[in-house]
Design a protein that fits this description.
Length: 193
């Protein structure tokens, strides 16, 4: 009550319902990857999906999430909130898939690099973010400046560690599959993964 979005787990082991919730998205991603949708059928009407997500599903899920002065009983409010939040999540997924396919379908090496590093960043960022937040929390500067500073100070070193210690080593293979080092000018291509 009073929140928008899925339950979260604060402990080391996720709650079963939280694990199931995210497993559904993971399973969809695995099945979609296997489907090899080169034509982009999923997300083709991305602008409709985003419009529905932002103007219908989000307001619906949010309006039944805050306050308790609704005419409906709590179970009905909970059901409407759940439908709105699930519809928002899936409409945003399909909308963003189509939007990114439309805008970013051409290969961009820097974007591929950040995409490859994203799993490493996701796994390694949390303790560093907590540490950095503890350092800046009492600073008398605007919150947006603190936010940007924490993001840059954490992301920069994590990208450096990814490049030097993760990308072409066993951990990089485990996270993203094998990667080949770019060939140096005048030398044969490297097969090191």
């Amino acid at each position: 009550p009073g929140s928008f979005g899925p339950d979260t787990s604060a402990g080391l082991l996720p709650l079963p319902q939280v694990l199931l919730y995210y497993a559904i998205f993971f399973a969809f991603g695995a099945l979609y990857y296997d489907a090899d949708d080169r034509e982009g059928r999923v997300g083709r009407l991305w602008w409709v999906s985003l419009l529905v997500a932002l103007t219908v599903a989000f307001p619906l899920g949010l309006s039944f999430s805050v306050g308790s002065d609704h005419i409906l009983d709590p179970q009905t409010r909970h059901a409407i909130r759940g439908v709105g939040q699930v519809a928002y999540a899936w409409a945003m997924i399909f909308g963003m898939m189509g939007l990114f396919r439309a805008l970013l379908s051409r290969e961009r090496p820097w974007l591929r690099y950040v995409s490859d590093a994203s799993y490493w960043l996701y796994i390694a960022h949390l303790p560093l973010i907590i540490w950095a937040q503890m350092i800046v929390r009492d600073w008398q500067i605007p919150a947006i400046v603190k936010f940007l500073l924490v993001c840059v100070v954490v992301t920069g070193p994590l990208l450096l560690v990814y490049h030097t210690l993760v990308r072409y080593r066993w951990l990089g293979r485990f996270l993203n599959g094998p990667r080949q080092r770019p060939a140096k000018a005048g030398s044969a291509p490297s097969t090191t993964a």
